[in-house]
Task: inverse folding
C-alpha cells in the first residue's frame, strides 16, 4: 500500500493551511494553492464548498458562496486537488467537507477520486456516532478520518472518540466557529495535554489563529504539535477589497510569517 | 400494524434523523437528550406544563365543526382543530413552553431561536418574557420584510431580533445562524428549535410537546362523533403542527393521514418548498431527511408565499412516514392557498394563516363532492393576522390579472 504522508509528519511545529476550493474562482484558486504548495507546508486542507456550512464562520461561508457562484461541482474540486497533487512532495493533503457533499457524490466514487492523492479527510458534521461504514471504507484505502475534539468533549467521550485515531487530532481551540477571536492558552494547554494522554498522534490547534504571534504563543505556551490556519488566510482577500494580485502577494508574505 | 415506536434511542426514524453536527455541538445535544429523558419522567414538570397549557395558552383548543365549509365542499364533515386560538395565535407556543421549562431545569440563562413566519419567534419571545430570560431571535431579512407585525410583537416582548443576510435570507439561513450562535455560546445558551427538524433530540422533543394537539383532538372527536376521524389533514413546512396532530393517531390504521406542503409556483418548478414531492434524501441542519438539493448536494433555496413553510428541508419523521406510506404528502401552490385563505375567511369567519391555508386548499380541492359521510380533522395551526399585508398585496396582484 502506498505511503500516507500524514504518518510521517514532523514531531513539532506542524503547519496546516486551510483554503476553500474554487475560491474566489476556479482559475484563481489554482494560483492560490500553487502559491501555498510552493512553501511546502506540512499539511494543506482543501475545503469543499457547501451551501450551508453551519460549523464555519462568516469568512469561510463567504468563500464558499463565491466558489459556488460559478456552480463549482464536487468533481471540479476533486480534479483541482488531483492536478495539484503532482507537486505535492511531502505535503499531506487533507479534505475538509460536509457529509452531504460526500453522500450525494457517492462514497465509493469519492474515494476512487481521492485514493493515493489525499491522505486524510475531515467530515465536519460526521460525529463519531455516525462514522461506522465511512471510516471502514476510508481506512481500507489508506485515507485517515481526522477527528475533531472540542473544549466541550469530556474525557470519557474523548477516550471513545480517539480510539485508533490516525493522522492528527484537530483540537478546536475556542468554543466557537472558525474565525472567532478568543484564544485561551491555559485552557488549550490543559485540553491538549489530556488528549495527548489518550493518543499518540500529533494534536493540532485550529479555529481563531490569525497571526505569527498566535502561532508562536501556541508553540510556547501549549503542548500542541502544531496549528491550523484557515479564516485568516481568506480574510486577507476581503481586506484587500478583492484585488486578487495584491492578495496573492500578501498571501505569500503571510505564509512566510507563520512558518515559525 | 405494529405499535409505532419511533425514533430509536439515537434519534433514527427508520433511516432518517440522526445527529449530524460538529463535535462542538455533539456533547451539548447528548446532554440535552439526557436532560429531556429525565424530565419526561418528572411529574412536577408535567404538572407545571399542563398548568401553563391550561391557564396561559388557553388549552384545550376547541374542535369546531365547520358547517359552512363542509356544505361548500359538499363532501365530508369538516372539523377544525383551532390551535390558532392559542395565546400568540399559533401552535408554536406549546413547544416553546415545554422547551423553556427544560432550559430552566438545565440552568441555561440565555435563549436563542430561529423564525420564519415569526410565529415561533413570537412564541419564544413570549415565554422568555414570562420566565424573564434574555431572548435573541434570528430571522431572515426577507422574512422581516414580509412579517412586520410579528417583528414588532417580538420587540414589544423584549426580544432582540438579529437580521440574517446570508443565503436566501429566510428560515434556512436563520437556522444556520442560530446554530452558529449556539456553537459560540454553548455554555449558557439554550436553543429553542421551533420545528420537528434539526438534530436529535429536537424532532422527537418538539413532536412530543406538540402532540397535545392530537391527544386533545382524539378525545374531542370521540366525544362528538363517537368514532375516530376518517382523515387528518395538516400543512407541513418543518412539520411540527402536523406531527403534533398526527402522532397520537399513527397506530389507528383506519385514520388516513395527509400532509400538505407548499408547492410555491408549482412542485415541478424551481420556486417550490415541496420538499417531499420534489426533494431527495440529504443532510441539512444536522438531520438526514428529504431536502431540496442539486446534483452536488448543494441545498436549494425554497419558495413559498408562506414564510412558515418556506424551508428546503422537512422533519425526519415526515420523511419516514412518507417512505412507510403511513402519511401521504401533496403540494399546494401559492395561488391555491391564497384562494382558500379567502374562502375560509368568508365562509367560517376564521381568517387562517397562510400555512394552514395550504391544508385548506388541499381539502377543498381533493374532497369536493367526494367522501360524503366521512369525518375530517384539519389543523388550523395559526391565525392570519400576521399575513394580512402579504395576502392583500398578493390578492391585489391577482385582481389585476
Result:
Amino acid at each position: 500500500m502506498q505511503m500516507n504522508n500524514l504518518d510521517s509528519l514532523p514531531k513539532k511545529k506542524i503547519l496546516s493551511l486551510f483554503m476553500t476550493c474554487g475560491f474566489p474562482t476556479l482559475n484563481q484558486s489554482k494560483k492560490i494553492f500553487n502559491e501555498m504548495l510552493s512553501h511546502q507546508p506540512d499539511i494543506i486542507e482543501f475545503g469543499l464548498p457547501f451551501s450551508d456550512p453551519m460549523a464555519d464562520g462568516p469568512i469561510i461561508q463567504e468563500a464558499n458562496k463565491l466558489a459556488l457562484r460559478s456552480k463549482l461541482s464536487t468533481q471540479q474540486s476533486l480534479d483541482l486537488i488531483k492536478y495539484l497533487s503532482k507537486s505535492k512532495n511531502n505535503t499531506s493533503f487533507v479534505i475538509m467537507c460536509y457529509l452531504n457533499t460526500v453522500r450525494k457524490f457517492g462514497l465509493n466514487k469519492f474515494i476512487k477520486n481521492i485514493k493515493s492523492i489525499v491522505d486524510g479527510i475531515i467530515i465536519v458534521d460526521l460525529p463519531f456516532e455516525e462514522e461506522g461504514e465511512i471510516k471502514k471504507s476510508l481506512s481500507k484505502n489508506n485515507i485517515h478520518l481526522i477527528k475533531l475534539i472540542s473544549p466541550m468533549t469530556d474525557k470519557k467521550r474523548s477516550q471513545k472518540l480517539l480510539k485508533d485515531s490516525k493522522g492528527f487530532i484537530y483540537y478546536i481551540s475556542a468554543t466557537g466557529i472558525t474565525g472567532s477571536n478568543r484564544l485561551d492558552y491555559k485552557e488549550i494547554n490543559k485540553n491538549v495535554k489530556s488528549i495527548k494522554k489518550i493518543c499518540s498522534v500529533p494534536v493540532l490547534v485550529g479555529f481563531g489563529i490569525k497571526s505569527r504571534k498566535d502561532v508562536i504563543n501556541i508553540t510556547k505556551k501549549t503542548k500542541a504539535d502544531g496549528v491550523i490556519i484557515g479564516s485568516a488566510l481568506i480574510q486577507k482577500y476581503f481586506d484587500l477589497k478583492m484585488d486578487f494580485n495584491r492578495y496573492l502577494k500578501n498571501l505569500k508574505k503571510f505564509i512566510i510569517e507563520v512558518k515559525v | 400494524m405494529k405499535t409505532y415506536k419511533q425514533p430509536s434511542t439515537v434519534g433514527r426514524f427508520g433511516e432518517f434523523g440522526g445527529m449530524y453536527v460538529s463535535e462542538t455541538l455533539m456533547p451539548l445535544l447528548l446532554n440535552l437528550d439526557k436532560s429531556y429523558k429525565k424530565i419526561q419522567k418528572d411529574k412536577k414538570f408535567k404538572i407545571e406544563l399542563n398548568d401553563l397549557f391550561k391557564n396561559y395558552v388557553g388549552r384545550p383548543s376547541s374542535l369546531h365543526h365547520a358547517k359552512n365549509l363542509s356544505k361548500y365542499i359538499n363532501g365530508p364533515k369538516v372539523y377544525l382543530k383551532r390551535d390558532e386560538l392559542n395565546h400568540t395565535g399559533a401552535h408554536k407556543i406549546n413547544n416553546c413552553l415545554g422547551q423553556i421549562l427544560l432550559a430552566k431545569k438545565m440552568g441555561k440563562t440565555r435563549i436563542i431561536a430561529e423564525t420564519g413566519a415569526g410565529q415561533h419567534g413570537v412564541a419564544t419571545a413570549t415565554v422568555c418574557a414570562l420566565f424573564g430570560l434574555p431572548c435573541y431571535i434570528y430571522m431572515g431579512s426577507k422574512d422581516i420584510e414580509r412579517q412586520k407585525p410579528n417583528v414588532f410583537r417580538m420587540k414589544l416582548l423584549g426580544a432582540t431580533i438579529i437580521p440574517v443576510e446570508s443565503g436566501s435570507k429566510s428560515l434556512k439561513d436563520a437556522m444556520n445562524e442560530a446554530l452558529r450562535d449556539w456553537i459560540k455560546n454553548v455554555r449558557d445558551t439554550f436553543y429553542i428549535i421551533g420545528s420537528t427538524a434539526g438534530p436529535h433530540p429536537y424532532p422527537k422533543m418538539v413532536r412530543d410537546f406538540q402532540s397535545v394537539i392530537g391527544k386533545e383532538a382524539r378525545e374531542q372527536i370521540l366525544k362528538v362523533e363517537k368514532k375516530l376521524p376518517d382523515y387528518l389533514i395538516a400543512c407541513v413546512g418543518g412539520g411540527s403542527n402536523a406531527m403534533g396532530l398526527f402522532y397520537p393517531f399513527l397506530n389507528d390504521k383506519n385514520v388516513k393521514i395527509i400532509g400538505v406542503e407548499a408547492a410555491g409556483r408549482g412542485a415541478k418548478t424551481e420556486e417550490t418548498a415541496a420538499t417531499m414531492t420534489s426533494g431527495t434524501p440529504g443532510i441539512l441542519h444536522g438531520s438526514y431527511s428529504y431536502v431540496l438539493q442539486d446534483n452536488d448536494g448543494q441545498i436549494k433555496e425554497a419558495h413559498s408565499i408562506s414564510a412558515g413553510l418556506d424551508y428546503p428541508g422537512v422533519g425526519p419523521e415526515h420523511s419516514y412516514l412518507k417512505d412507510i406510506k403511513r402519511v401521504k404528502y401533496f403540494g399546494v401552490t401559492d395561488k391555491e392557498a391564497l384562494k382558500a385563505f379567502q374562502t375560509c375567511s368568508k365562509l367560517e369567519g376564521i381568517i387562517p394563516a397562510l400555512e394552514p391555508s395550504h391544508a385548506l386548499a388541499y381539502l377543498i380541492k381533493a374532497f369536493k363532492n367526494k367522501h360524503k359521510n366521512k369525518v375530517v380533522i384539519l389543523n388550523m395551526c395559526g391565525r392570519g393576522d400576521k399575513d394580512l399585508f402579504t395576502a392583500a398585496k398578493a390578492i391585489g396582484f391577482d385582481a389585476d390579472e
